[in-house]
């Protein structure tokens, strides 16, 4: 269908069909808003932050507001599974490990206790009995967040997009937004045509600042290319989901956290990542192959120390993007000048599990409703901006 024939004015237009934009569009369509979701690439694609087969879901957070949001996220993920009759979540539990006395660890335990999340503290004897294939260094603490698990990410993204369309929403992929003209009706020009909408939501992942620049807004975002390595089990199944091996998170063992998921998506291979990367433009993510070198070395040392049942050389390395804010909290707010332009950005490598609630509050902002959560941790005004009109 040519863009010119598409209904000329929408209630809402969402730019970016990653998990945040897709969930926003889903909630808007469920609220009977005539909604268009625009995506620069043909779907599905692997250039942004939402691709890949799995993500961790957990209530373990150091900040109470995320744990509170996660309580509703679990319900909304469940609802999505029911609406689409698919399985998106598998409970595995999450081991959290840190050096004794680590303040981040203590904050996470407090938040779990405060919110009555089922959890268990493990002594080192308990630990080695339960997880004989993991070396917990002397002087470490460990807990299990029992409700944590794996989200099937690619399947989840497609499910949200399918349901959005089932609720009457329209997706146009392979259309890059090249111009935005603010106003009471926002005009959006793509490589294929022009659309108008009463409200615009920008959820463009690592491309957010490129879209905001012409509107004189630059958020303090860093875009990082992230290595996604898979490590081979010496004995297949040692760390397997079918043997109930959990996800894990090691706090600041290196400079940044290290996390892993049980072997599942590629049989015999376990995904273990470093919660950091190298600064890169999203369109240049793959131009040099050398920059994963440091992160892989950190992970290889970790694997040798903690997970002796894995070969410490990755079998596969994929890539993904993070968009970091300085405090690693999200940006969920209105454009400071154009109040019918809503921004969801800076998901800082931990936004997938929270997307059902992120989408809900971006929808609420767009519809002028009172938001279900306080958005003060997510405001643009917490930063000193260089260039806002
Ligand atoms: C390796 C890795 C592991 C992670 N692990 C976890 C985890 O375990 N748990 C967790 O909760 N989170 C995790 N995350 C984070 C989570 O995946 C991200 O926070 C989330 O996917 C961000 O989604 P997004 O929609 O903001 O961005 P994206 O997925 O990048 O979506 C933005 C979309 O906007 C489109 N776009 C941009 N510009 C334009 C334009 N001009 N016109 C049209 N379309 C445009 C892009 O093409 C893209 O599709 C991980 C991330 C990575 C990279
Ligand atoms: O959000 C998650 O669970 C993962 C693991 C911890 C660091 C970031 N992403």
Automatic annotation (TrEMBL):
GO terms for biological process: L-lysine catabolic process to acetyl-CoA via L-pipecolate. The keyword Oxidoreductase applies. The keyword Magnesium does not apply. Keywords: FAD, Flavoprotein, Oxidoreductase. GO terms for cellular component: peroxisome. Its EC number is 1.5.3.1, 1.5.3.7. InterPro entries: FAD-dep_OxRdtase, FAD/NAD-bd_sf, MTOX. One of its GO terms (molecular function) is sarcosine oxidase activity. It is an enzyme of class 1 (oxidoreductase). It catalyses: sarcosine + O2 + H2O = formaldehyde + glycine + H2O2; L-pipecolate + O2 = L-1-piperideine-6-carboxylate + H2O2 + H(+). It holds the Pfam family DAO. It comes from the Eukaryota. Its cofactor is FAD. Residues 11-365 form the FAD dependent oxidoreductase domain. Belongs to the MSOX/MTOX family. Metabolizes sarcosine, L-pipecolic acid and L-proline. This is Peroxisomal sarcosine oxidase.
């Amino acid at each position: 269908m040519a863009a010119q024939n598409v209904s000329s004015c929408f209630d809402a237009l969402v730019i970016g069909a990653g998990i945040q934009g897709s969930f926003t569009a889903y909630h808007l369509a469920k609220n009977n808003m005539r909604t268009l979701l625009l995506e620069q690439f043909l779907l599905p694609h692997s250039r942004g932050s939402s691709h890949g087969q799995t993500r961790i879901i957990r209530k373990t957070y150091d900040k109470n507001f995320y744990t509170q949001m996660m309580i509703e996220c679990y319900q909304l993920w469940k609802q999505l599974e029911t609406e689409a009759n698919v399985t998106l979540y598998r409970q595995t539990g999450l081991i959290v490990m840190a050096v004794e006395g680590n303040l981040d660890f203590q904050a996470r335990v407090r938040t779990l206790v405060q919110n009555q999340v089922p959890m268990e503290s493990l002594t080192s004897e308990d630990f080695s009995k339960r997880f004989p294939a993991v070396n917990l260094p002397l002087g470490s603490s460990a807990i299990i967040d029992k409700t944590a698990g794996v989200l099937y990410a690619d399947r989840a993204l497609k499910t949200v997009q399918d349901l959005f369309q089932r609720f009457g929403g329209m997706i146009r992929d392979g259309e890059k937004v090249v111009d935005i003209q603010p106003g009471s009706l926002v005009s959006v020009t793509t490589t294929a045509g022009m659309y108008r909408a009463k409200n615009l939501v920008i959820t463009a992942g690592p491309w957010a600042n490129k879209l905001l620049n012409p509107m004189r807004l630059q958020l303090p975002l860093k875009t990082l290319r992230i290595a996604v390595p898979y490590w081979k089990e010496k004995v297949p199944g040692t760390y397997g989901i079918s043997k109930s091996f959990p996800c894990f998170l090691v706090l600041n063992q290196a400079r940044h956290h290290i996390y892993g998921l049980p072997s599942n998506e590629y049989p015999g291979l376990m995904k273990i990542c470093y919660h950091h990367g190298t600064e890169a433009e999203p369109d240049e993510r793959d131009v040099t192959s050398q920059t994963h070198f440091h992160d892989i070395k950190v992970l290889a040392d970790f694997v040798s120390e903690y997970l002796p049942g894995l070969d410490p050389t990755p079998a596969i390395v994929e890539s993904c993007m993070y968009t970091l804010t300085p405090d690693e909290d999200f940006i969920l707010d209105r454009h400071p000048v154009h109040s019918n332009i809503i921004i969801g950005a800076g998901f800082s490598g931990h936004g997938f599990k929270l997307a059902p609630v992120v989408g809900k509050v971006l929808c609420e902002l767009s519809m002028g409703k009172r938001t279900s959560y306080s958005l003060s941790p997510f405001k643009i005004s917490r930063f000193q901006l260089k260039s806002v009109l």
